[in-house]
Amino acid sequence: MAEQTFDVVVIGAGPVGEVAAERAAKGGLKVALVEHELFGGECSYWACIPSKALLRPGNLLAAAKRIPGVPVGDALEPARVLERRDWFTGKGDDTGQVDWARGAGIEPVRGHGRITGEREVTLDGGEVLVARHAVIVCTGSVPRLPSIPGLDTIRPWGSRDATSASEVPARLGVLGGGVVGVEMAQAWARLGARVDLVITGPRPLPKLPQFAGDLLLDGLREAGVLVHTSSGLEEVSAVDGGTALKLTGGAELVVDELLVATGRTPATGDVGLDVLGLSAGDPLEIDDSGRVSAVDGGWLYAAGDVTGRALLTHQGKYEARVAGDSVAARAGGAEIPTGPWSRYSATADHRAVPQVVFTDPEVTSVGLTEAREGSADRVVDLDIAVAGSSLHADGYAGKARMVVDTERGVVLGVTFVGQDVSELLHSATIAVVGEVPLDRLWHAVPSFPTISEVWLRLLEEYGL
């Protein structure tokens, strides 16, 4: 078998793997980047990028209709929306990403890489890649399918199918009220599909404050989504002309496609973890520098969804920067500094990871969404009703929440729900991560007339 030696071998060439490889290469190391599908990964071709390309036109059309005097039509042009999505994904051509890797001093390697020994990765063709210093696993996550009678008799859509479909389905069933479920339900409804969304609770996004789910429920219904709340899917069967769904309570539907969006799990099932005595399919637990804690010798690292920390692309890229830098520094013999604010420590998930749900209304949060049990924390809730929001859209409906540590006088978390509130989220992230005292935040004057005036109203409501 052919054998090549590198300083670092990165398995998985999505955005996370690309960043880890780039940081290690910038540190002077010889890096191989292994990918068995497309360089650019899930986010670029099947997740973040195409889903937002599908959502944006519908959000924009809805926004335009909320402003009198703007000449708009009644419906989107699906073919042009899908064409624009395909432009963003390059129609599955990853040549540009491969060229980028080579330009960054990284060796792109096509093939399925599995760990077969200490610092050793073997490709499906038999070639062996040996790493002098580290192997970094960045293989992401895969959809988790529930156990539902009959589901194995059809071919349900996963998230990839939902973002890459070439035609608008006439009837789409969606199971799951999480991010993928609500985003794809609204996107396809606005493109002309009849969409039935089945969720187990009374509202979507159950991990967020109730007002977030309630406002989003209104937005989904406004977009034409038929939401079946406090329900579930008991049985699936193939019938002439589609797929029959039996819902909790006895209701029945027939759809052309069924999107199962019931969560994701770390993609560690086929990486060779058994060789290391680890369980395939489990997340790789890491320390804050990215090293896998259960593997002796300190040579195995991981970043992104595969760690199970926070399944978000921006969090994964942040972890990848830390992992790549840590590998390069240690390879040079340096003792890296530790601590929550060290560039060699990925600690964001310990306190505040921002997240955006790109529906209409948008749902954003960072840090805590509720007061800590037994604490003196205070929750401040109010409507987003300022001059900026009134000008932004007629009938603007939004809400904001601020969670405050009253003993220290700092913000612990912020939730915004409303049209275009995602652009407010980074200011909230800075306030939370930077632990900006409220009496200092009072002097961060929001510009008039913008939606960011909600910061002033939150502080006033708190009592400043």
UniProtKB/TrEMBL annotation:
Name of the protein described by the UniProt record: Dihydrolipoamide dehydrogenase
Entry similarity comment: Belongs to the class-I pyridine nucleotide-disulfide oxidoreductase family.
GO-annotated biological processes: 2-oxoglutarate metabolic process
Keyword NAD: yes
FAD/NAD(P)-binding domain boundaries: 6-314
EC number(s) stated in the UniProt entry for this protein: 1.8.1.4
Cofactor comment: Binds 1 FAD per subunit.
Record SUPFAM superfamilies: FAD/NAD(P)-binding domain, FAD/NAD-linked reductases, dimerisation (C-terminal) domain
Keyword Chaperone assigned: no
Disulphide bridges, residue numbers: C43-C48
Single GO MF annotation: flavin adenine dinucleotide binding
Pfam family, one: Pyr_redox_dim
Annotated binding of NAD(+), by residue: G176, G177, G178, V179, V180, G181, V182, E183, G263, D305
Keyword vocabulary terms for this entry: FAD, Flavoprotein, NAD, Nucleotide-binding, Oxidoreductase
Gene3D superfamilies, sorted: 3.30.390.30, FAD/NAD(P)-binding domain
Domain Pyridine nucleotide-disulphide oxidoreductase dimerisation residues, every copy: 353-455
Cofactor(s) named in the record: FAD
InterPro entries (UniProt xref): Class-I_Pyr_Nuc-Dis_Oxidored (IPR050151), FAD/NAD-bd_sf (IPR036188), FAD/NAD-binding_dom (IPR023753), FAD/NAD-linked_Rdtase_dimer_sf (IPR016156), Pyr_nuc-diS_OxRdtase (IPR001100), Pyr_nucl-diS_OxRdtase_dimer (IPR004099)
Binding site for FAD: K52, G113, T139, G140, S141
